[in-house]
């Protein structure tokens, strides 16, 4: 997914509590919310299992997205030519902290 699409959703949940971010992500109309929801769930599970923190006490302290490698595909065009298609990918980074 393009980092521009993901960044639009991350800007809305940055600084919110863990539970508020989950509720907000459930009702956003963007397709980018599905991978972000998985990342938020994973961050909460890691905080609980690795550090013994309660999920209700967490907030999203920092979140950003970087551009990943672009997959390159080619589509056939008229007169035997090829048209390049670049499918962008992204790397999502999310930090949670206790209040």
Automatic annotation (TrEMBL):
Record's subcellular location: Plastid, Chloroplast
Protein's GO biological process: translation
InterPro entries given in the database record: Ribosomal_uL22, Ribosomal_uL22_bac/chlpt-type, Ribosomal_uL22_bac/org-type, Ribosomal_uL22_CS, Ribosomal_uL22_sf
GO MF term set: rRNA binding; structural constituent of ribosome
Keywords associated with the record: Chloroplast, Plastid, Ribonucleoprotein, Ribosomal protein, RNA-binding, rRNA-binding
Domain of life: Eukaryota
Cellular component terms per the entry's GO annotation: chloroplast; cytosolic large ribosomal subunit
Protein family: Belongs to the universal ribosomal protein uL22 family.
Oligomer and partners: Part of the 50S ribosomal subunit.
Function recorded in the entry: This protein binds specifically to 23S rRNA. The globular domain of the protein is located near the polypeptide exit tunnel on the outside of the subunit, while an extended beta-hairpin is found that lines the wall of the exit tunnel in the center of the 70S ribosome.
HAMAP family: Ribosomal_uL22_B
UniProt cross-references to PANTHER family, sorted A to Z: CHLOROPLAST 50S RIBOSOMAL PROTEIN L22-RELATED, LARGE RIBOSOMAL SUBUNIT PROTEIN UL22M
Protein name, entry field: Large ribosomal subunit protein uL22c
Organism: Klebsormidium nitens
């Amino acid at each position: 997914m393009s980092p521009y699409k993901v960044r639009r959703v991350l800007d809305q949940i940055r600084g919110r509590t863990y539970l508020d971010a989950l509720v907000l992500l459930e009702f956003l109309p963007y397709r980018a919310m599905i991978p972000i929801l998985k990342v938020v769930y994973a961050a909460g599970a890691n905080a609980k299992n690795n550090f013994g923190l309660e999920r209700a006490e967490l907030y999203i302290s920092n979140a950003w997205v970087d551009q990943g490698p672009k997959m390159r595909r080619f589509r056939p065009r008229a007169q035997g030519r090829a048209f390049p298609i670049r499918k962008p990918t992204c790397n999502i980074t999310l930090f949670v902290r206790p209040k």
